[in-house]
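Below is how a single chain appears once it has passed through the pipeline. First comes the sequence as given, then the structure the pipeline wrote out for it. We keep one example in the README because the format questions we get most often are answered faster by looking than by reading.
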Amino acid sequence: MFKGYIFDIDGTLTSTNDLIFASFNHVTKKFLGKHYTNEEIIELFGPTEDYILEKLMGDNFETAKTEYYKFYDEMHESMADSYPGIKNIVFKIKEAGLPLGIYTGKGRTSSIITLKKIGLYETFDLLVSGDDVKEHKPSPEGIKQFAHKFNLDPHDILMIGDAPADIIAAKTAGAKSASVLWDSYAADIAKRLKANYYFNSVIELENFINKNLIMVKN
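Resulting structure:
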């Protein structure tokens, strides 16, 4: 029985991977004349977009950053959306009166863009982005912030994400981990890390959380 839920964004709430790849290549082509493969971009994941762009762009960083977020925002509706059914899960947890958090490696700017685009920005009680921690995932810092804010024992928190970093962060914090595999770019690695729970579809996750919410009510 969980008393608080934390969600990742990319690959968990939303199908944003293609949008991220396109956004990076939009600016790398424009400012560096270079195209990165999806695998090469994934290798950069961990730090926020700002950190990655600053390392790549040098003196063009500020201009490239503005261009990146402009593209990300303008192309969001045509390239990314929430997974069918995932919003229902979030709303049910909210209706049950349980704390809801986001812990993502994305920067705050792109996190807010995405959450607003899919209509969930006002639903979450806490947003911990890559800009809000001293150490990025798989650091458990975001989970600890959530536990502290809502006075929860980490063992009563479920961290839901698609990446190996989500599993490691949860284990380190002492929370439970739910690994969602419907759009994970590292599903094989995630399976080897032995999360507490694995879900292959949104409906599987919804059924599991529904049972937990019934237990809370009773």
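Residues 3 and 152 are 7 Å apart (CA to CA).

See the next section for the split statistics.
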